[in-house]
Specification:
heterodimer, A: 81 residues, mainly alpha, Non-ribosomal Peptide Synthetase Peptidyl Carrier Protein, Chain A, B: 416 residues, alpha/beta, Peroxisomal Thiolase, Chain A, domain 1, eleven-stranded mixed sheet, two-stranded antiparallel sheet, 13 helices, globular
Chain lengths: 81, 416
């Protein structure tokens, strides 16, 4: 399953999730920090749940705690597929 | 002890958004009950909350945030501006009966249908009963003591009483207090129906012979309390004074009040003592008046026990006739409505009341509002019979709230 998922698909999933959490769509770039997007630990817990639901990958709290930018999140997810 | 005054009020109710909207529509005879329930149809969370804040808040918290924003603005606390007191000296006490019940039942549905791993991480922070108080303190940077108070349908009044005590004890210089509830869910409907508490006819008509239960509503009411000297020093407009607060317990039954009304009367008497006023000084009683057969009879007994012969000389009416029963928000919303009515010297009506039940023989202000008669021998006249000015006496009301569990809370309010 994991071989068919592209980074673009992960990016789409992450960006859609961030928009759902209330982040300003115009500010969402791969370089944007979660702090700037007002994305906090509760949002990242939700994101982990969405990633698990879509890709079957479990992200631990300690993994997510290291994530600072949108790109960090995408890379972390891609590395676990 | 320095009096505690009300400098701002806010409300979201089945009669609309705004404390004055509630008061004006109720006194105009408008009823917010639709198809046997009383939702806040005019409330749109996006008017008050960003998309992010809205999804971080159960509806009961959204209602509390909206009512609080109105109350703080009404008190002249500039939104996002400097607070009139040190943030650490401003408390927040909000009542709720059940908190985020829609979040709770939604989480339960997810658990059952999809599994535990799909239950939202937002479930706990949204459903917890203190979520409203937490959100309001965060929104306005209130860093003094904040917590929730829960005593079923007396929660709102107990919260205001707790806020009053917080000020009187010196624990805070200002308190944002009230209550909120958003329980219009299938579970709450089924559960209250199972108790035969909900009105099968879907009509809220307190004290009427045909009353058959309460109509469930939702909403929030919030008041800003400050000490009088500090409020005057900052030039605040004062709406009224929380003169007293009394609370008691029936210690009798999980849901039924004592038939003789003694527990409720004890809370009313305690509120009078706390206020330092005699029963004869009360001009109006805002009844708990749920429209259930048991409450309205017991409460009528209680009012007579607490006020004696004076009970028959003053108007007694129920806000629930216009907005249904707001459960944990009821006491707060009713305190707001009572204070605004008292300021205008208006006795608001008990809507839908046309055939008072046998033995329910107080003046329930059936059908339409009327000017509030001054209760005591003309002593309240601004000018004496000889035309000389005399001190205008206080205009006072009691606001009753009683909850399942036998919790009784009564506020004594004075209009400015």
């Amino acid at each position: 399953m994991s071989t068919t998922i592209t980074e673009d698909q992960i990016e789409t999933l992450v960006i859609e999730s961030l928009q759902t959490f209330g982040a300003d769509p115009e500010q969402i770039t791969r370089e944007a920090t979660f702090e700037a997007l007002d994305i906090d630990s509760l949002d990242l817990a939700e994101l982990s749940q969405i990633v698990h639901e879509n890709y079957g990958v479990e992200l631990k709290g300690s993994d997510v705690a290291e994530v600072k930018t949108v790109d960090d999140a995408i890379q972390l997810i891609a590395s676990r597929l | 002890m320095e009096p505690v005054v009300v400098t701002g009020v806010g409300a979201v109710t089945p009669l609309g958004v705004g404390a004055r909207t509630l008061y004006e529509r109720w006194t105009a005879g408008v009823c917010g009950v639709r198809d046997g329930e009383a939702p806040c149809e005019e409330f749109d969370p996006s008017d008050f909350l960003s998309a992010k804040d809205a999804r971080r808040a159960d509806r009961f918290t959204q209602l509390a945030l909206a009512a609080s924003a109105e109350a703080l603005a009404d008190a002249g606390w500039e939104s996002g501006g400097e607070l009139p007191y040190a943030a650490e000296r401003i408390g927040c006490v909000l009542g709720t009966g059940v908190g985020g019940i829609a979040t709770l039942t939604g989480g339960q549905d997810t658990l059952r249908e999809r599994g535990g791993e799909y239950v939202s991480p937002l479930a706990v922070p949204l459903m917890m009963s203190n979520a409203g108080a937490g959100a309001v303190s965060m929104r306005h940077d209130l860093r003094g003591p904040s917590y929730a108070v829960s005593s079923a349908c007396a929660s709102g009044a107990h919260a205001i009483g707790s806020g009053l005590r917080m000020l009187q004890s010196g624990e805070a210089d200002a308190v944002v207090t009230g209550g909120s509830e958003a329980g219009l869910t299938p579970l709450a409907r089924a559960a209250f129906s199972a108790l035969d508490a909900l009105s099968p006819s879907g009509i809220s008509r307190p004290f009427d012979a045909r009353r058959d239960g309460f109509v469930m509503g939702e909403g929030a009411g919030v008041l800003v309390l400050e000490r009088a000297d500090a409020a005057h020093a900052r030039g605040a407009r004062v709406l009224g004074t929380i003169r007293g607060y009394g609370a008691s317990s029936d210690a009798h039954h999980l849901t039924a009040p004592r038939e003789d009304g003694e527990g409720q009367a004890a809370a009313m008497s305690a509120a009078l003592r706390d206020a330092g006023v005699a029963a004869e000084q009360i001009d109006y009683v805002n009844a708990h008046g749920t429209s259930t057969p048991l409450n309205d009879r017991a409460e009528t007994h209680a009012i007579k026990l607490a006020l004696g012969e004076h009970a028959k000389r003053i108007p007694v009416s129920s806000t629930k006739s216009a907005i249904g029963h707001l459960l944990g928000a009821a006491g707060a919303v009713e305190a707001v409505a009572t204070l605004l009515a008292l300021r205008d010297r208006i006795a608001p009506p008990t809507l839908g009341l046309s055939e008072p039940d046998e033995g329910l023989d107080l003046d329930y202000v059936p059908g339409s509002a009327r000017p509030l008669a001054r209760a005591r021998n003309g002593a309240g006249a601004a000018h004496g019979a000889d035309g000389t000015a005399s001190e205008e006496r206080a205009v006072l009301a009691l606001s009753n709230s009683f909850g399942f569990g036998g919790h009784n809370a009564v506020l004594c309010l004075e209009a400015a």
